Amino acid sequence: MNYNSNICCVHLGLDDFDLLKYGCTTHLATYVLNELPKKIGNVFLIDYPNLVRLNPSIPWKTRGNGAIAIRFCTKCDQLENAENVLLIVESIVDKYIDSMTKEFDLVTPDFEPGLVIATNVSSELTWIYEKALTDVIIFDDYLKKKFEERGIIFSQRYSGRGVIGALAAIAWFYKEDDYTYELLTYRSKKFYGTKRCVDENSVKVFDSITKNSTFNNYDYNEKRVLITPRGFDPVLYGVRGETPSDVKKALSIIKTCEPVVAWTIFRSNQATDAHAMQRSVSDLKPFRTGKAKIVIGSKPYRIRGGAVIIKAFDGTGEIVLVFFKPSQLNRIAEKLSVGDLVEVQGHVKKWNELAVFHVEKMVVLKTLREFICTSPTCPQCGSKMSKKGFGKGYKCEKCGYVDFNPKLTCKEKPRQVESKMYLPPLHAQKHLIKPLARYSKEKKFTPRLVQLIAVSETTNIIEPLQFL
Ligand code: ATP
Questions:
Q1: Alpha carbon separation from 116 to 64, 69, 107, 144 (Å, rounded)
Q2: Ligand 1 binding pocket mutation candidate from 16, 93, 130 (most atoms within 8 A of CB)
């Protein structure tokens, strides 16, 4: 907690607060960030608020399995102790929930919010982030006690399943991994549920001005704006990029015909492939994420709905791969042949009792050469010979001559699949997938180099009465 002699820091984790049709945890985080200075006094951050995406295969996620960490500091005497901080944060969250439920009265039955506070975070915690990102965590009292022994404080009021995501988000800090930023802007509550109105041309202008430092703003092939979500959530648009200053440019460039009532810039593991840990086939258990180098073991088979299914194997076992139609990877999968070597990235789901790997990205590493051979002519009578089946050679039907090993004239068949990386179209890329535009832009977060950031640089509620 003690950052230097006078300044004390707290890591706050939040998840699963999307209790309302129109709510989302980033919206709550924006409110908390803006309220903290009012309750605590002069508050600084040691990092932009974090939007940490976790395992996309978790069956009970609402949307993108995102959790939040806010890391704030102030003079030690203003904080008193961690329990006091928890009470302050809980009161802010209570007020948020009260206002939202009064206004909208749409509480969902599986409300599982989690609020966690940590004053002493270290790299020893990163395992919970790694596991929450790539596997399933069963959070029991034993595990909870272990964290409590390390000084982590769990809210009693907000102690649902969300504590897993909240802890994982806190733990991401020490992972020292690649990262990006996202500016999220929020809608006036008057507009909730209506179609979002963002000027397409201004999105293209923003894209061209920030070309090398932001990504996935606009799909020029499909002439489609990519920054607006489709659901009921309160986000108007979100732009992703490499630095806070680049994503912030959206506020002055992108034009909307409904007001932006608030914005927050998050640091995030989005668009980094963080979940794609290298695994062998035997390690691809249900609900895990990862990538595996694998040999195609069966002919591609198209099922109803357009998805393509292929069996594949490595030295440790066999698994069924599925390539879905929206990813357009199904079209490439159909061109694969038995013996091709590929690296597939995605996550494992259960189809009844069968573990099936849902492919979200694929690198074709090596394609087998394929040949078309013409039947030989009979050396006795000159007629075309015909194949008699595997290992049985060729036979001339006219004169009965049999040759077990004739000289064949063969031509190499052009393969319709290249050795390269294949990704879904931009609109079908999930949060964690690293887009092509980010290759070679990877960077590494270094916790010991953090500097204090003013809250106002990271967030602003412009119209409080329209925000909550
Ligand atoms: P929103 O973006 O609106 O917050 P969401 O898609 O992030 O919604 P949540 O409603 O937060 O989804 O639900 C995800 C739940 O799953 C949270 O309670 C989180 O703690 C939990 N969770 C996340 N990852 C794991 C994991 N690997 N194992 C077990 N539980 C997990």
A1: 20, 9, 22, 11
A2: 16
